[in-house]
Specification:
Elements lengths: L7 H14 L1 H9 L6 E7 L7 H7 L10 H13 L3 E11 L2 E10 L2 E10 L6 H8 L9 H17 L6 E11 L4 E9 L5 E2 L3 E5 L4 H8 L14 H17 L6 E6 L2 E2 L4 E2 L2 E5 L3 E7 L5 H7 L2 H4 L4 H17 L6 E6 L6 E9 L5 E8 L6 H5 L19 H16 L7 E8 L7 E9 L5 E8 L6 H6 L11 H17 L6 E8 L5 E9 L5 E8 L6 H5 L12 H13 L3 E8 L8 E10 L3 E14 L5 E2 L5 E17 L4 E10 L2 E11 L7 E12 L6 E16 L2 E15 L15 E13 L10 E11 L9 E14 L3 E14 L47 E14 L3 E13 L21 E10 L6 E8 L4 E4 L4 E2 H6 L15 E4 L3 E7 L4
Parallel strand pairs: 1-3, 4-6, 7-11, 8-12, 13-15, 16-18, 19-21, 22-24
Antiparallel strand pairs: 2-3, 5-6, 9-12, 10-11, 14-15, 17-18, 20-21, 23-24, 25-27, 26-42, 27-28, 28-29, 29-30, 30-31, 31-32, 32-33, 33-34, 34-35, 35-36, 36-37, 37-38, 38-39, 39-40, 40-44, 41-43
Length: 996
């Protein structure tokens, strides 16, 4: 905050008041009391916006002291300077043996919550109307400014076609009257929205009006009706017309909205566009061929819709830099403008690209203080590398940037006289086209701080401040370090409530050479404190929940950091769509201030929809027995989620999430209770799930499940999940012989308790480059938990990420799992159910298999059965490929799903056609394109030792399988419908995000 005295208007108010009363009257009033002792001091009204202690400190008029007119004037000035009064009058009257002074005051009001309500037709929405009001929380209230706010809102409504809208401000003086805060609600009646009518074009068009009208896109296609008026559509219509002229090479065209008169009878508005088409201007490059898209990105005349000398100079520089970055290091670019003739002109960029070079070496010489690697890390220049930068990365602009970066590095470490120069060597080592860049560094002497003097510190701990500084005795001296120290000192003062602190520094040579004596001078100013924290706007959210998020308390130093931290913590509750923070009366000269938070609760109901699709070797038709190895398919899906937030004002929520596709339909009802008993690290959730899925080709299953889960966060990187789930799973459309495995087609109940540990130390969860990620999931299903079967389930995953140099990342993930049945009575229903087996293979586990195709297979039909043990290991070498956004991956996946832990094997060969307990290896290449939501991934995997199996090859139905009897596929050489097959070796995968 900067120091601001009371406004000039307040300084002028006292003379004006004296003039209004008349000097004779005032002189007569005070002359009869001048010098008499003050026996009583009163305020009218008795309740004042300042505390009694503050008033006592401010007033120079003291009890039992002689009354002086100068003291009265000073008192009025000081009260006005607090910013909390709009009018002050002082009355004097005899009292006992002296005089009684009465300060008659009128308190100033301040802006509180500003809201827009009523019949609001979006656009504009309530938030846009509130922003258009221009009223800031905590600022002095001014009725004239409110009238201006209404005008601004009316203008916004009219710009969006709401010409009949009305805005009426309503003031709430009672809610926060103890704090002189008025809440303002703008009641809006939007009325009907006008529609566009046929646009009018005036000026030098040089184009057919019908074509221009079509470019505005103000009329609906096919229907032919005019669209409703909105500010966005008006802006898009202007862009559409400009784009049309730009496509016609009229780069100097001027398109503006001249007017948009409103017709009350038809409730329509006809936009009038003023156009100056300008001549056709063609931009050409002579000497090199550039695409139009590239030219539009490099030459700013297309973006600015203007042609002037400065833009052309910038365009020539951009073309040169682009060519140099492509290896034409000696490129020269000039431009030549042709005069307008017959409505045509041209701009020719004359390009002499020169020979194409390759930056093969970058040599840094003269550096002793910093290592070459440290300097290279800060440089933009890159030597040629395979694929990513085939010719290296070099341009004069890059070179200047790197020289400045190196200079800044040295200067920030005390080398004030450093000089950085470069030289480019062509035909390096006798190879035509090869270029080397030599960077020479003259470090010069290093300057150090000899002494540091810190002055002006009175209310802070000097030792604490000195311990935070970089410019201490014996350390390198630089302007950069001084700037850092200045920010450190000021930030520390701001955190302690000194908004008006200032900092000055000076230096002089010390007695020893290359040493400097530093002097820091701090002017602290007055310290400010929190008088009270006021939260308004919460209608449902409970006060105690909000209070626990406040980091400020009355009497604390007024710290902007703490104010912002509290704002962030209120947002973290997840129930507020907006949290405004401000200090009431920020410019008033008082040391105790109100801190204001105006919150707007988010909508209690939210709806989210989504649409997507899955491609690949996925499930086929439901009733047929297509290839057990999977078939290429397309599965569209949609999702609809409905959430009720902030239940009972305690951040609880309940949500219904649904998803439907050709492979899977599910509905999930979830109740979440975050911050259990105000504990930030505990969350409880209850879930009910109904799912019908056939994404595993062997069967279709229906799952009905209820579960309860407690999340406990121990520290930033470790979270524990305690869970109990009870589910019933029905198996249908079994693709294996029901005669051989009848128990697999029976419904089963499973009650399982589990604990899951997650440790996440990755630098970036979306695209990690270093760190570790561990998960351990241990579950127990038993009769005691309501389960029909008894088994223990363990699933462990460990992922590590290791940077290799500056460009490579070696990533590895190992996953191990086992399911162990116990206390089995021999009843087939008490073995591990088929739906509880591990199923694996695919984009996230093993890219040598299609989805869920790993592991044991039914000996009769060849369909996958899953297993009770798994071991997968994935290794990736991630590297940049082309430019900065496209990367590549070389990967090796190994592992399998095993029938049991005892059969886990590292063998790489299949014993026979019924052996699947061996390790399958796959290699491949992947591509990653960086997007804000994460990398888009394409992986191409090739299995080196895919399993063979004996299975159904054609489109047989389930009834066909039953009709064939209990053994439809006897082993060869017996005649059967089945044949020996091999899982497809080549597997493509497309998804978003890294593999692990």
């Amino acid at each position: 905050m900067k120091e601001v005295r009371h406004p000039l208007a307040l300084c002028c108010l006292l003379p004006l008041l004296l003039a209004a009363l008349g000097p004779e009257k005032l002189l007569a009033q005070y002359s009869q009391f001048e010098g008499l002792p003050v026996r009583n001091i009163r305020f009218d009204p008795e309740r004042q916006p300042l505390e009694a202690s503050q008033l006592h400190e401010l007033l120079p008029v003291q009890m039992n002291q002689p009354l002086q007119a100068a003291a009265v004037r000073s008192a009025i000035e000081k009260l006005f300077a607090t910013g909390r009064y709009t009018d002050i009058r002082v009355d004097a009257e005899p009292y006992r043996d002296g005089v009684s002074i009465t300060f008659v005051t009128q308190s100033r009001w301040f802006v509180g919550a500003v809201t827009a309500a009523g019949s609001i037709s979006n656009p504009p929405n309530a938030g846009q109307l509130e922003n258009a009001a221009g009223l800031s929380l905590g600022q002095p209230f001014n009725e004239a400014q409110v009238r201006s706010s209404v005008v601004a809102q009316q203008r916004l409504l009219e710009n969006n076609g709401l010409y009949a809208a009305t805005v009426h401000p309503v003031f709430d003086w009672e809610s926060d009257k103890d704090y002189q805060q008025v809440n303002i609600r703008f009641e809006v009646e939007a009325g009907p929205r006008a529609r566009f009518s046929r646009p009018v074009f005036v000026g030098d068009l040089k184009m057919d009006s019908a074509r221009l009208a079509k470019a505005t896109k103000l009329r609906r296609w096919l229907l032919g009706t005019w669209k409703p008026v909105t500010q966005t559509r008006v802006r898009q219509s202007l862009d559409g017309v400009r784009s049309l002229y730009e496509k016609a090479n009229r780069l100097q065209s001027r398109v503006s909205l001249d007017s948009m008169p409103y017709d009350t009878d038809t409730n329509s508005a006809a936009p009038t566009y003023r156009i100056d088409a300008g001549p056709r201007i063609e931009v050409n490059t002579i000497g090199v061929k550039l695409s139009r898209g590239r030219l539009q990105r490099l030459v700013p005349v297309f973006e600015e819709h203007a042609v002037d000398h400065d833009l052309l100079v910038e365009g020539a520089r951009n073309i040169r830099d682009y060519l140099q970055s492509e290896g034409y290091f000696e490129a020269e670019v000039e431009f030549k403008e042709q005069r307008v003739t017959n409505d045509r002109a041209s701009i020719d960029f004359l390009v002499n690209p020169g020979e194409r070079h390759k930056l093969v070496d970058l040599l840094i010489r003269g550096n002793r203080y910093f290592s070459t690697e440290s300097i290279r890390d800060r440089m933009f220049l890159q030597t040629a590398s395979f694929l990513q930068f085939r010719h290296g990365r070099y341009s004069e602009a890059m070179m200047r940037r790197d020289e400045a970066s190196i200079t800044d590095l040295y200067e920030s470490n005390g080398f004030r006289d450093v000089k950085v120069t470069h030289r480019v060597a062509d035909n390096y080592k006798g190879r035509p086209g090869d270029v080397a860049v030599f960077i020479d560094i003259e470090e010069g002497p290093q300057y150090f701080v000899d002494t540091l003097t810190l002055e002006g510190v009175g209310q802070m701990n000097v030792e604490d401040l000195l311990s935070r500084l970089s410019s201490v005795a014996g350390q390198p001296f630089s302007d950069f370090n001084v700037a850092v120290d200045r920010d450190t000192i000021l930030d520390r003062y701001f955190e302690s409530g000194f908004p008006n602190v200032t900092f000055e520094w000076s230096s002089k040579p010390a007695a020893q050479p290359h040493r400097v004596d530093l002097r820091f001078v701090v002017h602290e100013g007055a310290q400010q404190f929190v008088r009270q924290v006021i939260v308004s706007g919460n209608k449902v959210t409970r006060g105690p929940l909000i209070d626990r998020k406040l980091t400020l308390n009355p009497g604390d130093p007024l710290s902007p950091v703490a104010v912002t931290e509290t704002q962030r913590r209120l947002y973290d509750l997840g129930v507020f769509s907006r949290v405004d923070a401000a200090v009431q009366n920020p410019d008033g000269e008082t040391d105790r201030k109100y801190v204001l938070y105006s919150v707007e609760e988010a909508k209690r109901f939210s709806l989210a929809t989504g649409i997507g699709a899955e491609f690949g070797r996925i499930g086929g038709c439901q009733n047929c027995l297509e290839s057990p190895g999977g078939a290429n398919g397309f599965a569209p899906r949609v999702s609809i989620d409905i959430t009720r937030n902030n239940l009972w004002g305690s951040t609880h929520s309940i949500s219904l999430r649904t998803r439907a596709s050709t492979l899977d339909q599910r509905a999930l009802l979830n109740y979440s209770w975050p911050r259990v008993h105000y504990n930030e690290n505990l969350t409880i959730s209850f879930t009910a799930l109904v799912e019908h899925s056939r994404d595993i080709r062997t069967f279709t299953f229906r799952r009905e499940e209820v579960s309860a889960q407690l999340n406990q966060r121990f520290r930033k990187d470790i979270t524990l999940f305690y869970r109990y789930a009870f589910r019933r799973v029905d198996i249908a459309d079994l693709k294996i012989s029901p005669f051989l495995l009848p128990q697999f087609s029976q419904p089963v109940r499973v009650g399982i308790t589990s604990i899951n540990l997650v440790q996440d130390r990755r630098d970036d969860p979306v695209d990690p480059h270093k760190g570790i990620y561990n998960t351990v999931d241990l579950g127990l299903a038993s009769h005691a938990a309501g389960s029909q079967v008894n088994f223990m389930r363990l699933l462990v995953r460990n992922s590590t990420y290791h940077p290799i140099g500056k460009r490579l990342v070696l990533a590895r993930s190992t996953e191990f799992g086992d399911i162990w049945a116990f206390h089995s009575t021999g009843d087939p229903l008490e073995i591990v159910p088929l739906a509880e087996h591990f199923f694996g293979g695919g984009s996230s586990s093993h890219r040598g298999f299609a989805e869920f195709q790993a592991g044991p297979r039914d000996p009769s039909t060849g369909f996958p059965l899953g297993g009770t043990a798994l071991l997968f290991n994935q290794t990736e070498l991630r590297f940049p490929l082309l430019g900065d956004n496209l990367g590549g991956v070389l990967f090796h996946d190994m592992g399998n799903i095993y029938s049991s832990l005892g059969n886990l094997s590292f063998r790489v060969t299949q014993k026979d056609i019924r052996d699947f307990d061996y390790m399958v290896h796959a290699i491949g290449i992947g591509f990653r394109y960086r997007l804000p939501i994460g990398p888009v991934r394409l992986d191409l995997g090739y299995a080196l030792n895919s399993p063979r199996y004996y299975g159904v090859p054609g489109n047989y139905t389930q009834q066909d399988l039953i009709n064939l009897g209990p053994n439809p596929c006897p082993p060869p050489p017996a005649a059967s419908v089945c044949t020996t097959q091999t899982l497809r070796r080549f597997q493509p995968f497309i998804s978003i995000g890294q593999t692990f």
